[in-house]
Write a structure and sequence with these properties.
alpha/beta, 37% helix, 22% strand
Amino acid sequence: MRVNGGKQRAPRVLIAATGCWLGTARLAMALRELGCRLELMALRGHPARVTGVFERIYQYDPLRPMASLRGAIVGGEPEFVIPADELALMHVGEMRREIEGLVDRSVGGRAVMEAAESRMTLMRIAAGEGVAVPETMEIVEEADLEEAMARFGLPLVLKADATSGGQGVRVMRDPRSARRAWGLLHRPPGLVRALKRGFVDKEWTHLRPWAQRKKRGVSAQRFIAGKERTGMAMCVRGAVKAMVCLEVIEHWCERGPSSVVRIIEDAAMERAMCLVARRVGVSGFCGFDFIVEPEGGRALLIEMNPRPTQLAHLALGPGRDLVAAYVREVLGVAEVEDRGRVTASETIAVFPLELQRDSESQMIRTGFHDVPWDSPALVRKALKVVPRVLTEDTRWRETTV
């Protein structure tokens, strides 16, 4: 059921984005389809700008990030805000004193930010709730690293706080490389690297640590050579209202985002997500990452991200429609119902990542290829050249006539 002129009107929502993820555009389109009033804070080249679903767009200036966010909140007076990525989440957290009510409604209390900003804190919280996690220890100085290598052995996984998409994760196979990686991970990034990541990759997560000369927390985990799984959930004050469990089949690049996933049933993952979400009191969209032990098949929680994941927009049927649950449970538009399942396939090829990984991938043809057919402009924004596998599809011709 859609929200229209004859129904309850949804509150205004600000989507705050610092990167240029296509998933943000897809989420915005799904929210607008259900009648949401949307505003956007984003970089000039953000793909969400071409969707035409926003009432107003505010410019994000990575050199003046807090002024950008403050301007969007003061200008639009949103009733809710959705941080689209980790840096946006940190910006929202920094404004808590000014907009505490908005942050609590949109993301949750202080415990959410603490778990999001520190991997070690998350591991302690999860373990305290009885959730299975890999053996992990905090690395404050090089002596801690030596202890971790002796305790966990090699390979060893090093993880830096406040990173995502595998950017702050290193799998180290020898002591010398591990010592060098720890030095790079915990020190503030250099200016050249911070600017390169910003202007070239459109990822500005390194600029503020450079400006503040702030060292990042680093943790070490025992290496587990298992399959990756991921979960996405929508919560209200710690209560999970919709969730989906996925197995990762392909990655876009090494330690990068997934490009093919499969919908699965996993009671242990669901239990873990519910326990951690309740413990920290998260509200809104949230993603969870797991690694499966080769022996025994336990799914161990390794990460939580209180923001939308790249497939959060998908309609996957009752109990699995995160967007409908968000509009109904968070925004309070009671008449919104879960949308019908968009595909009967359990396998989902993520657009455009699987095309970029392998344009001849069989997963594109045999699974559900999540192309935004209703927005040719977004397809063109995502791809420099639209491949034949799309242009020869009848759905593409229908949308471009």
